[in-house]
Request: fold
Amino acid sequence: MSDSSSWQPPVDPSAGPAPQAPFSGPAIPPPSPYGAPAPTPFGAPDGPPAPGQPAGWTPPPKPGLVPLRPLAFGTLLGASFQVLRRNPRPMFGFALIITAIVSLGAGLVVGLVSVGAISRIESALAEDVDAIAAGSIALIILAGLVAVALSLVASAILQGVVSLEVARGTLGEKLRLGGLWRAARGRIGALIGWTLLLTAALVVAIIFVILIIVGLSVAGGAAGAVIGVLLGLALFGGLAVLGAWIGTRLALVPSALMIERLPLRAAITRSWTLSIGYFWRTFGTLLLVAFILSTAGQIITTPVQLVFSLGGGLLNPNADEDAMLGTLLIGSLVTTVISVVIGAISAVVQSATAALIYIDLRMRKEGLDLELAHFVEARHAGATDVVDPYLPRPAAS
Reply:
């Protein structure tokens, strides 16, 4: 008699095959009749999700400068400084050339005009000194305005190029200066016009406040002068607050002009609309970046100035005029070079910050991150006819 544990029930031929127990191992899909499986989409994970992540969760791809999702504050701040490291040759090199040209050009213009004006005053006759002095002062002021205009134009050009670098860098592209310049073709004029328009508005507001102070001083005598000064301080304070508010709401105009290639009026509306609900975030980010750059600049330049000030006295205890002049010239030259380098870095980082805020707000409000991810996936698959995801879509008819 056999063991009962080895007993098997009789098999009924009409019942079909016996049911199989479920297989607890990993499921192995059958081979596809169409060949090899499709490649993994760009940014998809290679393995199972990490602990604590839901099944099917896919991390946002990061093809370039930032991940394609709304940016956290730390990511935005870090990416602003990363622009220089990611593509240093066109960014830092171009910014350094622009800053150096502007600094030298402005210094030469103001310096030559000032020297000429002083020479005219010194060689003028006694009865003509007042008239020549007034004309010379006006000429120096005009030279200063020319230098400011030159600086604004250069700053506008640099801001446009940096905005395009941030936009293309977000998609994983790394263009040389020639490619960035071709992408900026046709938009530099609008950007310069916008910069000059802002400057003109600021100059008009300052002149208006000054005229009020002068008018009250002339009309009211001593009491009017006191009232005019107090009112002027209040107006300048209000003007600073108003300028900060309007400047923050319009800080994205250059990015809209360059990246979306919008007309000036549409770019102004675009910046104003995107910043609704995000004023303090935009203002705080721009202010913090400016504070960091200013503090870093002071940390670097102050010791250099102290070294030349104290070192000049130690090396020249007899106060020789030629030695003092040489030390002063060398110190000024070194300080100027350092200031130009710091100015170039600051210009790139501040322009990059505004462009990143623009991209972040479009991700948050318009789902631009999905458009960017679709563009990157299509390009990764070899497509060449994908529309630029930054450009505005035509309205549906």
In short: Confidence is low (pLDDT under 50) at residues 1-16, 18-47. Residues 1 and 7 are 11 Å apart (CA to CA). Residues 188-249 form the longest helix (62 residues).
